[in-house]
Design goal:
Two copies of one chain form a homodimer. Chain A is of the alpha+beta class. The first copy, chain A, contains ten helices and twelve strands. The first copy, chain A, folds into two domains: 121 residues, 60s Ribosomal Protein L30, Chain: A, CATH 3.30.1330; 142 residues, Phosphoribosyl-aminoimidazole Synthetase, Chain A, domain 2. In chain A, the strands form two sheets. The first copy, chain A, has a seven-stranded mixed β-sheet with strand order 7-9-6-10-8-11-12, with helices on both faces. Chains A, B: It is an enzyme of class 2 (transferase).
Chain lengths: 287, 287
């Protein structure tokens, strides 16, 4: 059984789970386990790892339209170097500071492979589901797409400074809360834009029609993409960008005070996920 | 740097951390990472692993005198066998059911070694610290001591059924809440009774005088202990029993309605941790 199938089985077994985070009694709880081999390429600093691990969980809370209250992280490593642990904590603290959450510590575990499990707790009385999109609405994405793909390319060519910089994303907690009153469906783009659209389409029983030209492709992608196909690959399929993908009535955003850039990338339709008229494959990052 | 030193450094770096769980805005959050090599001996079922991992975090919440609201767990393993994942979820669900918490899912991660990171969120407006014990009070422990040591012996001799049964402890969430109004200091015994007493003594700037004969040694220990010294080793030093160790004025427990057995094992003194007049070593389980 692959992870996606197993996660589906887990969701069936656990009623309150599903969407980006679980909600129980007004609390939003989400957890993510990341490890060196697949999540932290050579060159990733412990500061960036702390930022990114906790940021991934903050992004899940953001996707529910919730505030972020507290974060913890369990840190598993073969050795506990004081500078490394401190750098990790600094990164976790700094990403929390961007969102209003408090980083309140965690656990250490002696572990062969560097492994981090982060958990964030938030609050909302009115979580935004994945299932509320309707034909006639518009579909939007926050920020830019493709930073993580560009980061991997930077690490591969030995530019660790740019790799780390691109890896440290800003979780969209403020935007998620601002959008919650008007967003009809929302999730984060951690599996990539294409897969996110398919997941929203399935949950909402709708379709999407987007335009390639509208995607807010990050400037770092323009620098490294070898051609137009590669550019699309990095922006729509690579995943792990942790932007919000959401739907809303076309004029609804006029009433929202947002400090985060938001781009309308297309429309909600009755069925089918297409880009410029062609079917958009349901593939992306498999966690 | 060993884990204990690193945890101390972490606690210094993160203001809200410390004690058994962090408290922020009335929320109690705790996380624990466990893995096969040190926490799940051969013979441990996935059902027991789910129970025990989530139970360890529930115990931390219990030690704060808080209720337990929600639990999540990240499950890392080389493969995702449907029966194993389901058994793990069943164990996590069942231990939550004992405490009123809801198990609301988690994350799956492809991982060379079976690894679990569990997080529990609870609520309290008045957490019980480790620092409130005063000379003249009594010191107590819930339940019995030594089950985990006896479980390891059972696994070693191939009696997996008894090992698993002893490994599935009942987190003392109900007792922790009932005791919260009268307990002056409290923690769980996951590092072993001896180390727990030293930690309470340090936090409260007090001492303890306990009697070996008063310890509520589990009947499973009586079955496997080779002599009196071994019996003390399993009951007071082995650790991972997840009982509550707490202090209270001697008559205060009369007003508490408890379904959990509680044993008075000695008294709070001005300084020094002694058992029957001899210094009690500060050693135990190092996570």
């Amino acid at each position: 059984m692959d992870e996606r199938s197993a996660l589906g089985m887990l969701a069936d077994a656990v009623g309150a789970a599903g969407d980006d985070a679980a909600v129980v009694d007004g609390l939003v709880v989400t957890t993510d386990m990341l490890h060196e081999r697949t999540d932290f390429p050579p060159g990733t600093t412990r500061y960036t790892a702390g930022w990114r691990a906790v940021g991934a969980s903050l992004s899940d809370v953001a996707a529910m339209g919730a505030d972020a209250t507290a974060a913890v992280a369990a840190y598993g490593a073969p050795t506990f170097d004081a500078d490394e642990v401190r750098a990790f904590v600094d990164g976790a603290n700094d990403v929390c500071d961007l969102t209003g959450a408090r980083y309140v510590g965690g656990d250490l575990d002696s572990h062969d492979e560097f492994t981090v499990a982060s958990t964030v707790v938030g609050r909302t009385d009115d979580p935004v589901p994945r299932s509320g999109a309707s034909p006639g609405e518009a579909v939007y994405v926050t920020g830019t797409l493709g930073r993580t793909g560009a980061a991997i390319r930077a690490f591969e060519r030995g530019d660790d400074e740019q790799g780390n910089a691109l890896f440290r994303f800003e979780p969209r907690v403020d935007a998620g809360q601002a959008l919650a009153p008007v967003a009809t469906a929302m999730m984060d783009s951690s599996d990539g834009l294409a897969r996110s659209l398919h997941q929203l389409a399935e949950a909402s029983d709708c379709g999407f029609d987007i335009s390639w030209d509208r995607l807010p492709v990050d400037s770092s992608v323009e620098d490294v993409a070898t051609d137009a196909a590669d550019r699309r690959e990095l922006a729509a399929f690579f995943g792990e960008d942790f932007e919000l993908v959401f739907t809303a009535p076309p004029s609804a955003l006029e009433s929202v005070d947002l400090s985060t850039p938001v781009t309308r990338i297309g429309d909600v339709t009755a069925a089918g996920v297409v880009a410029d008229g062609d079917s958009l494959p349901d593939r992306g990052y498999t966690h």
